[in-house]
Amino acid sequence: MTADDLRETAAALAGRALELPELARAGTVAAYVSVGSEPGTLALLDALRARGVRVLLPALLPDNDLDWGVYEGEGSLARVQHSGRMALFEPAGERLGPDAVTTADVVLLPGLAVDTRGMRLGRGGGSYDRVLARLERAGARPALVVLLYDSEVVEHVPEEPHDRPVHAVVTPSGVRRFGPGT
């Protein structure tokens, strides 16, 4: 995609996501800064912040777990090169600890694909599997939403026993919900 295509896709994705009732009600949203070919998230992060939402962003720890910090705008991000991986944009400010994600009303998850059952395929590092397990242990029940391109919603992805379905996927063309009543 061209740079213009990427900007348009990010704007469309942000517009669709901002229509979600879960995000309209949210006081705190755990999100991420897109990297590489992932659908752009900065427009969405800035729109959430403008609404007064507290946006938490992850910082990758050496064991692949995630710590969290507050997003204060694009200028509050630091480009961090992790050994053997691509550089990530992480919050430069205070770290809140791995359990901070349990305060989120919505968790926006990256992924490679999601299937018609709501099963998400991640990048294989296990960082978000840990997040989902942490939420479950804490009894936290945030809305789990994956941000993807339309072509990344597929018929079936591999599933492991620890995998959990998400509640919705947002793509530039719309929202698809999973679970009871969808």
Brief account:
With 182 residues, the chain is an alpha/beta fold. 23% of the residues lie in helices and 27% in strands.
Written description of the protein model:
- There is one protein chain.
- The chain is α/β, with parallel strands linked by helices and about 180 residues long.
- The protein has four helices and twelve strands; from the N terminus they run H-H-E-H-E-E-E-E-E-E-E-H-E-E-E-E.
- The protein is globular and about 40 Å long.
- The model has no long low-confidence stretch (mean pLDDT about 90).
CA-atom Rg in angstroms? 15 Å
The helix content, as a percent range, equals: 10-25%
Q: How would a crystallographer describe the biggest sheet?
A: 7 strands, mixed
**Structure classification:** alpha/beta
Strand fraction: 25-35%
Low-pLDDT runs: none
Total of helices: 4
Number of strands: 12
Question: How far is the first residue's CA from the last residue's CA?
Answer: 32 Å
What is the strand arrangement across the widest sheet?
Answer: 3-2-1-6-9-11-12
Give the overall pLDDT as a whole number: 91
N-to-C series of helices and strands: HHEHEEEEEEEHEEEE
What's the shape? globular
